[in-house]
Design goal:
The protein is of the alpha+beta class. The chain has nine helices and 21 strands. A hairpin with a 5-residue loop joins strand 14 and strand 15.
């Protein structure tokens, strides 16, 4: 799939060729890509630039810069405590707890990192019981595929060792099978395309629109979506465009809550799938009605299947979701980047780098993301120190634009916090930063999230330090609800795509 055009409403998807460059800066390409944003299975291609005057320095960071930081600070004891408010004057105290490429973004006069005690993020009891019951039987196949996994965390944290070559893929499987109940639901995924510099007065979102009724049949909720979120988007940055979509991923197998039923959802073919994913766009007008469905199979050797509905042509087309390194709709985002990693595990080489204490926003007080800073992309919430697994992955596909990606996943439940991607020249390219909140701490949306006992992302920002632009993805109406077999069958029925969006 080098270019997907025929009948797809000006969609531009550039296939990564050898020598692929990060600099897709042609105004014409950028404009075409944005207007045709149909295929963005989660266009969380967030591309923010550091503050002016420091961008050039960060652009020249190489993988060795990260390796030096990690070697120097891997065992550093946190020099912060709950109750402190850290500012730009504390940058050297912060540096051991924030990776290079992101710490520079915190260097502005108004910085205030309010530190709180870390929250317990132990997954729900049924997941923990599944882990205890089945973990001992799990093993790796010679090619790294997972065998004998029923449910729960596949491998114990204590078995991961930087000197063990198999620890990287084991960590990847722990992430893939982290506890998420039946999967994440987002009533309105709001994507803001943010260009470095300037301001966004009058450009920020206001009232958050509900998704079309046909997408939420079978979902019972009473919490109202916020009516004015403009004040959530503080700081600078020029907002060029906003896109709204409904999103849901449903897991069909390896379900701890259905261990007694073989760990599968109650559909006839549930054992054949790991998850299915749906994204339906309903704003702006030129994207309304466009939708994408992705099938991820339980067999890790089997390629994904995916379909797109083009509302302009009123046609469903089968597409390839396997070229995960494709540039999507003019951004530098790839299909692999969702949740920091949403690719197929066996197409990557994995390495466990070790454990690291980091400052993070995973114990958020806000119900929705708040931002400030020079480009309106720095989390404006409370921070805590948590321990993370540091994982490296390198693509096996020679055309992939990344040379390596380093990701930090929470040591308690394997949910993501931060990720760094390096281009083929070995220079820092992108920085992903998530804001998350413990499910039981939500005041609203309790009907969709209470009792799940999981770390719920509020959204994320990805910084493209080479191209100095950003997209901010905020999740309004997030939950992990119980999913019935009937709803799953209806939502992911490809034959009904045209009928639903007519």
């Amino acid at each position: 799939m080098s270019v997907l055009t025929s009948g797809l409403a000006d969609v531009v998807i550039s296939h990564a060729k050898p020598g692929f460059s990060a600099n897709h800066n042609s105004p014409r390409i950028r404009r075409l890509a944005i207007t045709g944003a149909v295929l963005s299975i989660f266009i969380v291609a967030l591309v923010v630039a550091p503050a002016a005057g420091r961008a050039a320095d960060v652009k020249n960071y190489t993988r060795s810069e990260f390796d030096g930081w990690f070697a120097k600070y891997s065992q550093a004891k946190p020099d912060v405590r709950a109750g402190e408010v850290l500012g730009a004057k504390d940058l050297e105290r912060i540096r051991p707890l924030v990776p290079p490429g992101f710490v520079e973004q915190l260097n502005f006069p108004e910085l205030k990192l309010r530190v709180v005690a870390a929250r317990d993020h132990t997954p729900r009891r049924d997941y923990m019981e599944c882990t205890e019951k089945y973990q001992a039987q799990v093993r790796l196949e010679p090619d790294g595929a997972l065998a004998n996994h029923v449910c729960g965390q596949p491998f114990a944290d204590a078995t991961l060792d930087p000197s063990d070559p198999s620890s990287g893929i084991k960590a990847a499987w722990n992430f893939i099978y982290r506890w998420q109940n039946y999967g994440q639901l987002i009533l309105n995924l709001t994507l803001v395309y943010d260009r470095f510099g300037g301001g966004h007065s009058g450009q920020a979102p206001t009232a958050i629109e509900s998704p079309p009724h046909e997408l939420i049949e079978g979902i019972n909720y009473h919490t109202g979506l916020p009516t004015d979120v403009a004040n959530f988007y503080g700081g600078g940055g020029t907002f060029e465009r906003m896109v709204n979509a409904f999103y849901e991923r449903v897991y069909f197998s390896h379900l701890a809550q259905r261990a007694e039923a073989g760990g599968v959802l109650g559909t006839a073919d549930a054992k054949d799938f790991l998850w299915k994913e749906y994204i339906g766009f309903f704003s702006p007008y030129d994207m309304r009605g466009q939708a994408v469905i992705i099938y991820r199979y339980a067999d890790s050797h089997r390629a994904d299947d995916s379909w797109v509905y083009d509302a302009k042509l009123r046609r469903v087309r089968r597409i390839s979701a396997e070229v995960k390194s494709d540039s999507v709709v003019g951004t530098d985002q790839t299909f692999d980047d969702l949740y920091t990693f949403s690719g197929r595990e066996l197409l990557w080489k994995w390495k466990f780098l070790g454990w690291k204490d980091l400052l993070c926003v995973m114990d958020a007080q806000n119900e929705y993301q708040h931002f400030y800073g020079p480009n309106g992309t720095i989390p404006d919430d409370v921070w805590s120190v948590r321990r993370f697994a540091a994982i490296e992955r390198r693509p096996t596909l020679p055309n992939h634009p990344y040379s390596s990606v380093v990701t930090f996943w929470d040591a308690q439940n394997w949910h993501p916090w931060l990720s760094l991607a390096f281009n083929r020249q070995g220079k820092l390219w992108k920085v992903w930063v998530y804001q998350s909140k413990w499910s039981e701490d939500f005041q609203g949306w309790g009907e969709l999230i209470h009792g799940v006992a999981t770390t719920a992302p509020l959204g994320d920002v990805v910084t493209d330090v080479q191209n100095e632009r950003a997209t901010v993805a905020s999740e309004y109406g997030v939950g992990y609800p119980v999913v019935t077999a009937a709803r799953a069958a209806a939502l992911f029925d490809v034959s009904k795509l045209e009928e639903v969006h007519r």
